[in-house]
């Protein structure tokens, strides 16, 4: 949440400084080339596959995403750790807080006017803090410490996709995408976890693993309409698991995201954007192999059970896109956006997302 204050302050400062002099008029997208050189030609930076490129064009990108999660939730209500420890026959360990930092490198290339190819790899760092049900249990399984933290880091899954622009009429365009998630990220990460007689190195639950472990299909459909100094877009994207289980005997649920955004150019180099993202994700299927499911209180930790994965959430997106239109660093883009949950309805017991901040650099050649 500390990002929120910073972002809002920056927003207000930028908005105030830009509206004090009239925004320059520039033509509305007479050619495809011109439409990509305006700050709102890209969606908020956390949206993937939002644009296509002109024939022969390349683009490199780097994104950094940081997510924080805290507070346990059941459905759409918060629950205390006391309530949680009594649930479903008794959990022994409660997740308390989680953070994920993801570095994403992307490359795009358009072999034809209509087709853009895309590849993206990522490196992840994840941390999770936990609380043990009681001091007595902590003495038996964790040397008396009621709190413990687990970590994982490494390369995540690689995504390759193709975007096909099937529609371009005046100021409106649309493309569909079809991608594949390659399970390059490890699903065998271990760390010290509490167990009878003291903490030992053990397999961590899916939420701490670096990839899905399955080949997944990534379809998407995107529509954008540009006006003189503003634009809007919408996208539907999904993740369809192509395999019933990964090598650890489980798979994540299928996912659907519906996105809507609006971008407003305050200057030739600056746009502010806002949007909404609705996410649905199914439960985790299967039983996670080698993950401990038993604890002194009955069950081990909520993340060891598939029913505590997935659900619905609706996020508000607030972002800024910057582009250098001419001169030194011409066409370099910098952008960031903040996603704040406004509603969640989660399956089982889960930590709720607190905020997701993404910033990124992009450059087309
Ligand atoms: Cu691009």
The low-confidence runs, each spanning 5 or more residues with pLDDT under 50, are 10-34
CATH superfamily: Autotransporter beta-domain
The total beta strand count reads 19
What structural category characterises the helix and strand content? Answer: mainly beta
DSSP helix fraction = 10-25%
Distance between the termini: 36 Å
Q: What would the average pLDDT be, to the nearest integer?
A: 89
Number of domains: 1
Bound heterogens, unique: copper (II) ion
Number of continuous helical runs: 4
Shape: elongated
Would you tell me which CATH topology applies? Lipocalin
CATH architecture: Beta Barrel
Give me the Rg, rounded. 22 Å
Element string (H = helix, E = strand): HHEEHEEHEEEEEEEEEEEEEEE
Question: Which percent band covers the strand fraction?
Answer: over 45%
Strand order of the biggest β-sheet: 1-3-4-6-7-10-11-13-14-18-19
User: Could you describe the largest sheet, including whether it forms a barrel?
Assistant: 11 strands, antiparallel, barrel
Class, according to the CATH hierarchy? Mainly Beta
